[in-house]
């Protein structure tokens, strides 16, 4: 493989070699091939991608959730053959003469897996890129004990894509699929009207369903307490389940993906001899699955 050295920080990268007889194989995009791209899936996920020629891809990603934590993935075409650690430094561009590289931390290398970093170190890498530095991984080559590898993320053409990524992240939903995949909601007594908190929960589910085209099935099971007669309660539970289905189809979910059942007084989860127990038994359970 012919190796092209990046003019940004090459002197610093060579300084990482601890022994004069060892070779440094360095991978990074040059000024002409440095591209950053943002991909998003509605309000559910955002990724900031950077191709590293002849090596793989650097990927920053965030998913819809309360905290919107950031993760970094170093997608290697050739994955590690052993367990080790990679050092991580922030390397200044060549025009910052005399500025030393700064240690950021290290990344664990797992056999046959890509490299990953957590929220804190991912944000630190982005802040270094924003300043024009080159976050650089370096490790011993697992295929050649005499060589070391340096893999740099180029800050060229970074700023505009980074801003688009931050805006995408800000627009993500504040909850994930795991947050809405199993839901228990309660009803008012002798009514098919949801309680205020349950209506709020249903609105949240509806917003999520609007953004996720990969929902496979939605199972809705409705239950009642033991007051009112068995046949009446059975019909009431079916009415409650259908009302939830109608709401979801109104949000654009295909009707044939929704399965409803009414169980009436069956399968109580609490005693029916007190109001607290009866409130718990008047419920609808929604289970959502994806492929």
UniProtKB/TrEMBL annotation:
Key word Membrane present: yes
Localization of this protein: Cell outer membrane
Signal peptide: 1-22
Entry superkingdom: Bacteria
Cellular component aspect of the GO annotation: cell outer membrane
UniProt keyword annotations, A-Z: Cell outer membrane, Lipoprotein, Membrane, Signal
UniProt key word Membrane: yes
Limits of the OmpA-like domain: 175-291
One Pfam family per UniProt: MotY_N
InterPro entries, per the entry: Bact_OuterMem_StrucFunc, MotY_N, OMP_bac, OmpA-like, OmpA-like_sf
PANTHER family membership: LIPOPROTEIN YIAD-RELATED (PTHR30329:SF21), STATOR ELEMENT OF FLAGELLAR MOTOR COMPLEX (PTHR30329)
Name listed for the protein in its UniProt record: Peptidoglycan-associated lipoprotein
Source organism of the structure: Pseudoalteromonas holothuriae
Source lineage: Bacteria, Pseudomonadati, Pseudomonadota, Gammaproteobacteria, Alteromonadales
Primary gene name: pal_1
């Amino acid at each position: 493989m012919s190796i092209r050295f990046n003019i940004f920080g090459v002197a610093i990268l060579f300084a990482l070699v601890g022994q004069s007889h060892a070779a440094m194989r360095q991978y990074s995009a040059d000024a002409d091939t440095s591209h950053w791209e943002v991909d998003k899936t509605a309000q559910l996920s955002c990724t900031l991608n950077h191709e590293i020629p002849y090596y793989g891809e650097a990927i920053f990603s965030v998913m819809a959730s309360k905290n919107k934590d950031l993760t970094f993935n170093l997608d290697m075409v050739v994955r590690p053959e052993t367990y080790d650690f990679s050092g991580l430094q922030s390397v200044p561009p060549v025009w910052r003469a005399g500025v030393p590289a700064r240690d950021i931390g290290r990344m664990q290398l797992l056999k046959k897996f890509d490299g990953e970093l957590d929220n804190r170190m991912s944000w630190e890498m982005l802040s270094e890129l924003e300043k024009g530095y080159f976050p650089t991984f370096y490790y011993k080559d697992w295929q050649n004990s005499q060589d070391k590898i340096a893999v740099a993320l180029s800050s060229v053409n970074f700023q505009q894509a980074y801003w688009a990524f931050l805006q995408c992240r800000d627009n993500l939903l504040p909850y994930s699929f795991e947050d809405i995949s199993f839901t228990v909601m309660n009803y008012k007594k002798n009514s098919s009207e949801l309680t205020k908190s349950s209506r709020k929960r249903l609105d949240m589910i509806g917003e999520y369903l609007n953004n996720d085209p990969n929902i496979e099935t939605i199972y809705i099971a409705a239950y009642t307490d033991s007051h009112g007669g068995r046949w009446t309660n059975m019909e009431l539970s079916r009415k409650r389940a259908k009302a939830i289905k109608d709401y979801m189809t109104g949000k654009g979910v295909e009707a044939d993906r929704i399965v409803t059942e009414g169980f009436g007084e069956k399968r109580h989860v609490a005693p029916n001899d007190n109001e607290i127990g009866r409130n718990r038994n008047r419920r609808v359970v929604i289970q959502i699955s994806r492929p």
